[in-house]
Amino acid sequence: MLLLTDNARQAIGSILAATPDPAASGLRISSSAEDPKTLALTIRSAPNEGDTVVGEASARLFLDATAVVALDDKVLDTEAGSGGAVQFRLSKQG
Predict the structure, then answer these.
(1) pLDDT (tens digit, 9 = 90+) per residue, 8-37?
(2) 63: which residues sit within 8 A by CB, 6+ positions away?
(3) What are the residue boundaries of the structural domains of the chain, listed by start?
(4) Is the distance from CB of 90 to CB of 63 less than 8 angstroms?
(5) Given the DSSP bridges, would you call strands 74-80 and 86-92 parallel, antiparallel or unpaired?
(6) Spatial distance between the Cα atoms of 41 and 8, rounded to a whole number of angstroms
(7) Other Cβ atoms closer than 10 A to 43
(8) What's the whole-model pTM score?
């Protein structure tokens, strides 16, 4: 199962705090419509039917079936990007 670092939880929580309903919202990771081999990240007000929910109420991810398989052995972390923007980064567990 995808693991979240404390930094990733904080970043997700900050993003979701700006939504109309932070307690129900999450970041959804799903296969891209343009390229099924590419994952897309979107802000959603609730998980889609069949999504797997990862994380806790203040930092939730909604993963579609493709993302669950692709991210099963990964860790989601953040790093500072250009201009201080937060960038998400995936690495292998262990």
Answers:
(1) 999 999 999 999 999 999 999 999 878 878
(2) 2, 28, 29, 30, 51, 52, 53, 54, 71
(3) 3-92
(4) no
(5) antiparallel
(6) 14
(7) 13
(8) 0.90
Task: Tell the burial category of 35 from Cβ atoms under 10 Å away from its Cβ (0-12, 13-18, 19+).
Answer: exposed
Determine the length of the chain.
Answer: 94
Tokens of 42: 């979107």
Query: Using CA atoms, how far apart are residues 7 and 86, in angstroms rounded to an integer?
Result: 10
Q: Which fold has domain 3-92?
A: Hypothetical Protein Aq_1857; Chain: A; (2.60.300)
Separation CA 26–CA 13 (nearest Å): 9
